[in-house]
Known about the structure:
mainly alpha; hpI Integrase, Chain A; 2 domains; three-stranded antiparallel sheet; 13 helices; 58% helix; elongated
Amino acid sequence: MNHTYTRLHAGFTEWLRILNFEPTSQRDMPKMLTAFLDFLEAKGCHSIAAIQEQHIKAYIQYLYERTNKRSGGGLSVNYIRKQMQVIRKFSRYLTESGQESFDATIRIKDKTANTREVLTIKEVQRLYIAAKDDLLGLRDKAMLALYYGCGLRKHEGVSMNINDVLMDKELIYVRQGKGYQERYVPLTGNNKTELENYLFYARPHLANDSKEPALLLNIKGKRLGGFSAYERLQQLVKEAGVDKAIGLHTLRHSIATHLMQSGMKLEQIQRFLGHSSLESTQIYTHISNQLSL
């Protein structure tokens, strides 16, 4: 990349860190931006002022035609959508930092670009059943209670400390929400039971008298990492016979959709999820409608 693009790329990366984007976003978005900027340079576009709609359309077309390096097939529409999200966030970064920006309002029209995988209530139940009653199984049920029952984001769950669980108040305290926004989430019913079982019967054995403050622990008594949590979920998915490609965030999407279907008001779901704007929550209206067709 030329000097200008290199400087802007570094600024964008720092912007993601300052705004407390999820660790995976801080890792992956700069890589995706590098691919876009490299494409622009290859097309003779060497400055932000030179970026036109035709460049972005050409990049989208390039992504549609590019071979998937892992599977050998084409790139998924959802992956291309993520690339476009990075371009839009880069445009937003430039605007918010008072620098020359560009129009990034182009949308991918393919229907699958706006769909999100959602589990049914029965599939969620099968995940809980797949988690055994041993130490790691109780930990996995607590993990499901956080990500599905409490609707936490990926990094929010693994960032939880034991003192963030307020059993007497039936709340959990999310201190590391998106954009540094704190919130309290209700902890009742089965979610409270699963966390109590983990805290009373499993965590003490996993901690082995250590002073580790993390709520979710791995087999070595250390904080459970995001990738390890993802791998455990994949194991549960396999054992439960759920034939869907899902991640930790799918559990959050699923509880939001189920709450929508149960009749909960959009504003209440917004507070539950910790969305800063109602616009972010409205996606679940469309998902719920699609599932009811």
